[in-house]
Amino acid sequence: MKRVALIGATGSIGRQALEILGAHSELELVAAASGSTPIEGLAPLTQTGGDLTGLLERAEPDVVLNAVVGFAGLPVTLWALERGVDLALANKESLVAAGELALAARERGGGRLLPVDSEHSAAFQCLEGRSPEQVDSLVLTASGGPFRGRTREELEDVTPEEALAHPTWSMGPKITIDSATLANKGLELIEAHFLFGLPYEQIEVVVHPTSVVHALARFRDGAALAHLGYPDMRVPISFALTYPDRAATPVAPLDLAGGLTLEFHAPDLETFPLLALAREAGERGGTYPCAYNAANEVAVAAFLEGRLPFLRIADAVEETLAAVDGAAARDLEDLVEADREARRLTEQRAAIA
Ligand SMILES: NC(=O)c1ccc[n+]([C@@H]2O[C@H](COP(=O)([O-])OP(=O)(O)OC[C@H]3O[C@@H](n4cnc5c(N)ncnc54)[C@H](OP(=O)(O)O)[C@@H]3O)[C@@H](O)[C@H]2O)c1
Fold first, then answer.
1. Is the pTM of this model over 0.70?
2. pLDDT band per the 50, 70, 90 thresholds, residue 167
3. How is residue 73 annotated by DSSP?
């Protein structure tokens, strides 16, 4: 039996995780948490809001699935990594914001960090067992979101409803907007850097509209390994929860003879500047990735509330990154302060937009 704590149980990832848990008697849900939606009776231990680490202490899980959205998931990530409890990580924002602190915690704790993001789960599988010197580069795919192919002029008046209509993935609102701006791929670029220890110049992003290839690893001998599958988060969730086993899921196998076409092209960095801004923030290091994430969270919330036009999300992030000092965080307190400052600056900009 594996004791599972599911944090963010009411969200898109959380609900799909419950389906996986329900199908595997060897996975025991011992604790569940949400932000504000009531969940009594879902697990022996439940909590809505508040201090999530207290719940984890009481639950004594073997694996924590962090499916919280945003920086709010950071205490869960650090708790699991510090204690050497396996962490199935969907909450990419915590690793982006606190990469160095999280890796130091993993080093001390010695547990496993299993990515749930589909691209990173795919990359993990392509890279598993390979030494770094064999790896030439990693390729993350992006669907391109609902506005792929549009010009900046055509994006001036898009509404939250239009941005929430994702072509290939059904997800929570924040990540869906991030997919429309390509900030999601920016966060994933930084996430991949920390997960796999690759420098940014060895991580490429390509647009692949059908989201069938999730990631590829290129090796020094000229070979590339790709991970393919229909876009369905139950696959990476199941992989992370049942690792190192690979349990069955209800997801259909690929129908290759049915005429699968694989199309790739370069992302449009001018129309979608948040991808290039993420690369720049990642390369600058320090708390720039934390500021990028914080500014993006605030700007996306303002867009969803109708306070900020779509194109201003990227502007607000860019202006915040230009205003922060980006100094490295010595500890969690420094990091929380960097997050707070970036949020304050972005709120100011959103208010005058
Ligand atoms: N959805 C996907 O397909 C997908 C794919 C790859 C990666 N991810 C990543 O997975 C994470 C979750 O995404 P999602 O789409 O599942 O988001 P979502 O549908 O918005 O769900 C978010 C979950 O987090 C909970 N939550 C929010 N703030 C919290 C807090 N302060 N304390 C405890 N719980 C809190 C919410 O609880 P309430 O119900 O109470 O609000 C909800 O259960 C994100 O980091 C996202 O980038 C998602």
1. yes
2. confident
3. G
